[in-house]
Every structure is written in C-alpha cells, then in structure tokens.
Design brief:
The chain is of the alpha+beta class and 400 residues long. It is built from 21 helices and nine strands.
C-alpha cells in the first residue's frame, strides 16, 4: 500500500488496486486544474488542485466505508468513485461549466464517455469494479452515492477543510472524524447517529460562511466571468468542436489558447485576466433590490449576455465592457440524512433548528453583479439601474 503525505489528512493510504487509476491520464490531468478556479487572485495560497482533493475524498470515503462495514466489493467501488469523481471538470474547475453545459448539454458529473471510452474502463474491469456503477455513483443515482454525492458527503468534508487550509480563511472547520464515526448504515440508507448532530451542524455552518468569503467572493466571480466570456467568444467565432476540446484542457493550456487567439477581443479579455486587470463592480445587488424575475433568471448564460448587451448599449460603451453575473439563487439545504436516536429516524432539520436559520442566511448572501472596467463604471451603473429597475438602497443595504 502506497502512502502519500497530505497537508490536510496526514498520510493518505492508496490501496494497491487503485494505483494504476491514480497514474491514469484522467487523474494526472487534475494536478493542473485548480480546485478553486480563480480564487488565487484573492487568496495567493489557493493553488491547490483537483488532484489532491480527489485523493482526500478517496481517503475519507475509505474511512466511511469501513465505518459502515461495507462488503469488500462495495468498499472498492466507493473509494474508486471518490477518486474519479472530479475527472469531468474543465479548466479552472467550475469556471466554464455553465457555458459547457449550454453548448454540450452535460455537466462535470457526466463522465460515462470519459470512463467507458478510455483506458479507465479496462483498469476498472481488471480490479472487478463495474464502470457503469462508478458512473452511477458519480452521477448520484447509485444506492451508496450519498457517501460522495450527498449533503454530508466526503466530497464536501474534504473541500471545506482543504479550501480553508489553502486560503487561510478560518471558516471551513469540519470535524470529519466525528462525522464519519457517527455514520451508520440502516436498511441500505446512510444515517447519522445523534452523537454526530453537532458535527453535521458545523459542516453546514462552514458551507454557509465559506460561500461569501471564498466561493462567491466578488473578485473570483469577476475573474470567472471574464474567463467564461473569453471562452464563449472563442467558441462562438470558431464553433468547430472547440468547446469539446477546451473542456478537456487543463488551466494552463486553456489560458494559453485564449492568449494566442486570432481574435482580438478574446486576446484582450485573456490578457486582462492574466495580468489581473479586472473589471470592477458597477452594481452589486441583494435579493431585496432586484425583481423576482431576475432571481428566476439565475444561472442563465443567455439571459446574462442579453442583459449585458442592453446595458452596454444604454451606457454607450463597447459590448465587451459589461458583464452580468446572476448566480443560482441558493436552494434550501434540506438534509436527506436521517438522524438516528434511541427510537426513531428523524430528518436533520427536525433535530437542528440551525438549518432554517442557515437557509435564510444563504438567501441574504446572494448577489447579482454588474461589472465593467473602471473608466466606465458610472455610465454602466446608471444604465443598469434604469434597465433592471433597481429598488432604492436601504441603510442596511448600504452597509453590506
């Protein structure tokens, strides 16, 4: 068994059967895909990768499968799926997932082609792991998928701990050991012993506090929008399968392709990003300031582009000088994990009043952003306020 030194978990043991998978091109590529996309522009230490996160998720999945006493074949399935769960990510992780989904009709969890049409398929069959079951685990439809694809899964445990470690943000503290020790298997379902409720609450608190501080930090969002706009423009002008190629690149290869683009607008955007000449916030709006229809437009790249074009026209600036960012409106955390007390199985939200409070907190954290280069911020702001029918700011809004 091979031991790998990890700054978060100490030594990670890689089972002999999994070593060829670790050395596969699909996993090795993840060494060059940053876990947090462009967060290194905010937190210089955030250069950790999907590769080390995949090892961490595999490690925690192994611990959990032993805790719930899975059979040997299920243990190997779970740890394998945890190792492979991120191979579908494109460059800079989630940065172009939206436009890739729009163009190709699939997300980073759709890995069937990557697994069944590559050498991974033969490696999995060699160790008696069904490739289709691995895909079902990653897609979240396998009976054991909640171990890596649930509300209290090993994926979240690892990335919260790892992201907090590398950014230096002190909000990602999760007692993964306690959570795993409190996990049980009951009638084929993952349940949590009541002794793990506080550890589960700490994970949900960490998720909530890390959202504005790291995952939705406005500088990271601006950088991602610049990057995704450059990729979109490149694919729009050169539609001959370029998106399929770019989604399989790593960070450096994709950035180099944009910097060397034959199209000047794409090159300018890539250069601004490379040298950290970022757009600024013209407007940054909470849910109380925008219409319900705008909240419903979340995660629609086409809607964002349409609004950006109208704002640019109204402001009298170049179309490429306005970016609109409408993140997905936070869904309620309705935890499917059941809590087992002495007599009953209860949903976590019935045991913990914190869940309702955290859901409301997540909604108040949501922001719509309108971004522009500094010289035209005021023109873009006035045009955006008029076109988006922005409600007047309250004293509380001004303080945020």
């Amino acid at each position: 068994m091979k031991a790998i030194k990890d700054p978060v978990h100490g030594y990670i043991q890689v089972e002999p059967e999994l070593l060829p998978l670790v050395d596969s091109p699909e996993i090795q590529r993840l060494r060059y895909v940053r876990q947090l996309g462009f967060s290194f522009l905010v937190y210089p230490g955030a250069h950790h990768t999907r590769f080390e996160h995949s090892l961490g998720a595999m490690h925690l999945a192994s611990l959990m499968s032993k805790q719930i006493e899975l059979a040997k074949e299920d243990h190997l399935l779970v740890t394998t799926a945890a190792l492979l769960h991120d191979i579908g990510h494109g460059p800079f992780s989630h940065a172009i997932e939206g436009i890739a989904s729009e163009s190709l009709g699939r997300s980073h969890t759709d890995v069937r082609d990557l697994i069944t049409k590559s050498s991974l398929n033969d490696e999995l069959e060699r160790i008696d792991v069904d490739p289709v079951e691995v895909c079902l685990m990653i897609e979240g439809t396998h009976p054991l998928a909640s171990i890596i694809h649930g509300d209290l899964d090993v994926d979240r445990m690892d990335y919260l701990l790892r992201d907090a470690h590398y950014t230096g943000v002190p909000y990602g503290t999760v007692d993964s050991g306690r959570l795993i020790r409190a996990t049980r298997l009951s009638n084929g379902e993952i349940v949590l012993d009541e002794s793990g409720v506080q550890a589960a609450e700490s994970l949900l608190i960490a998720r909530t506090l890390m959202r504005p501080a790291v995952y939705y930090h406005h500088v990271s969002r601006i950088a991602e929008k610049i990057f995704s706009t450059a990729v979109y423009e490149q694919s729009r002008i050169d539609p001959t399968g370029i998106m399929e190629k770019m989604i399989r690149m790593d960070d450096a290869a994709c950035m180099q392709a944009l910097l060397c683009s034959e199209y000047s607008d794409v090159r300018h955007l890539a250069e601004d990003l490379y040298y950290r000449r970022l757009f600024k916030r013209s407007l940054y709006l909470g849910k109380e300031e925008v219409s319900a229809s705008l909240r419903l437009a979340n995660d629609s790249n086409e809607r964002e582009r349409e609004l950006a074009g109208r704002i640019a026209e109204q402001a009298g600036v170049m179309p490429r000088e306005v970016l609109v960012d409408i993140p997905a409106f936070p869904r309620d955390m309705s935890i499917k994990v059941q809590v087992q007390d002495r007599d009953n199985l209860l949903p976590l939200e019935e045991v913990s009043p914190l869940v309702t409070t955290l859901n409301e907190t997540r909604r108040t954290q949501w922001r719509v952003g309108v971004y522009a280069p500094e010289p035209v911020i005021n023109e873009v702001r006035m045009a955006a306020r008029e076109l988006l029918h922005i409600r007047p700011l309250t004293r509380q809004n001004r303080l945020i």
